[in-house]
Amino acid sequence: MNYGISLSKIRKNLSINYLDLKYKIQFRYESMRLILFLYQNHLYKFYVTIKIKLLSLLIIMVIFTLEILVLRIKIPLLIYLKLLT
Description:
mainly alpha; 1 helix; transmembrane; Transmembrane protein; transmembrane helix; membrane
């Protein structure tokens, strides 16, 4: 019985489907790697910006506390000097 399909045609068709599937999987793998790379890069940039913002906030807080300390020392000193004169 010959149904018009030879074994070599079936093998050729299967190999084409296998290669097609292989390239699709490889393409998806590469695209997922690219997405993960971009996501990691974005997270790193986000981490760096958060770190910079926190550092700048810390510097502002230090400057503010120093100003408060200077005012706490300066105002009583000025009052004391005014009382003396």
